[in-house]
Write a structure and sequence with these properties.
The protein has a two-stranded antiparallel ribbon. The longest helix has about 35 residues, at about 1-35. With about 290 residues, it is mainly alpha-helical. It has helices at about 1-35, 55-60, 60-95, 100-110, 115-125, 130-140, 155-180, 180-190, 195-205, 210-225, 225-230, 245-255, 260-280, 280-290, and strands at about 40, 45-50.
Length: about 290
């Protein structure tokens, strides 16, 4: 009887995890897909089957292509810089002999703050002419009024996104750097390897799993970006900062168009699956396994 209980315990634990995944992952996805085929009247609660009409209407709309493009651009503008700068910060802090705890706290502080509240502060900093950004950068580069300029607004929002994510990436890399085996570094230095060679042939491959985790975390944050956009630009000017997540809110909550909001949710899910598939192939997969480039 005891042996039977021991054999069945793993299956019971898997069953519990499977039920939770079914309830909180699969069921919501299925409901979103079903809602995309209906025109929902939120007052009466009735739904009318409309087939692919919601897909045809939404995909043909200019806002769909624009929000999809803005989502991809915002992801590139936040994921690449935050991971690069976060890694650089982690290497610098890890190389300090004193004050590691202080600088770790400094860089993690933005992660612990409320992004909506800090977005209001950043909006003040980007205020036309009187904000610190215009005051410092306008005389040098000739650019001003970032949040009212369709060419600059998404970049301004991305700066805030980077400010929020760099600390998290740095902390992840610092934790990984602290756990790396020292014997490989000592061997490389005894062999006379230069600093760049030590980083490229020893440190970077060993950081592979952390790099993939940081990439997934930052991409997920970029795809879900809503609060910073709502607080700083409300999707403007001229829709230049509208992303898929923001448009899901606009369609579903402002316009009560649940069917078209479901179509946008499916598009966001497809984009997430595409990134996940890329992360499981080629160089990214070797990097995740660690010990190789």
């Amino acid at each position: 009887m005891r042996a039977l209980r021991q054999r069945s315990l793993p299956y019971l634990l898997l069953l519990a995890a499977g039920v939770l995944a079914l309830m909180f992952v699969m069921v919501p996805i299925v409901l979103v897909v079903v809602l995309a085929f209906f025109d929902i009247n939120l007052v009466s609660g009735a739904g009318t089957y409309v087939g692919l009409d919601n897909f045809r209407t939404e995909i043909a709309h200019d806002e769909f292509a624009r929000s999809l493009r803005n989502t991809v651009v915002y992801g590139v503008l936040t994921v690449v810089p935050s991971m690069t700068i976060g890694l650089g910060v982690a290497l610098l802090v890890n190389g300090l002999t004193h004050g590691k705890g202080f600088w770790r706290s400094v860089y993690f502080l933005p992660v612990a703050t409320t992004l909506v509240a800090m977005s209001a502060v950043w909006r003040w900093m980007f205020h036309t002419d009187t904000g610190i950004v215009d005051t410092v950068l306008s005389p040098i580069f000739g650019v001003r009024d970032w949040l009212a300029n369709p060419d600059l607004a998404l970049g301004a929002v991305a700066i805030v996104g980077n400010w929020h994510q760099i600390g998290l990436v740095a902390i992840l890399y610092l934790a990984a750097l602290g756990s790396l085996p020292r014997d490989q570094f000592d061997s490389a230095r005894i062999d006379g390897a230069a600093s760049w060679n030590v980083f490229w042939h020893v440190t970077w491959p060993a950081l592979g799993p952390t790099t993939i985790f940081a990439f997934i975390t930052t991409v997920g944050s970029a795809l879900q970006a809503y609060d910073v956009i709502a607080a700083m630009t409300q999707g403007g000017p001229l829709g230049s900062t509208e992303t898929l997540t923001y448009m899901i809110w606009v369609r579903g909550v402002n316009y009560f168009d649940i069917g078209r909001a479901a179509v946008l949710s499916i598009a966001l899910l497809a984009l997430s699956l595409l990134v996940t598939a890329a992360q499981r192939t080629g160089y990214a997969r070797r990097l995740e396994e660690g010990g190789t480039r």
